[in-house]
Amino acid sequence: MKQIKTTKKNTLLSLAYVTKIVSNLEKIDAEIKKVSTSY
What we know:
Largest sheet: none
Distance between the termini: 58 Å
Order of helices and strands: H
C-alpha cells in the first residue's frame, strides 16, 4: 500500500515538473516571436 502512495506522489511531481517546463518553453517561444517580429 505504501508503495502505491509514493508512486502516485512521484507521478504528481513529474506532472508538475513537466507542466513547469512546458510553460517555460511557451514563454521562451513567445519571446522569440516578439524578437523576430521586431526586426
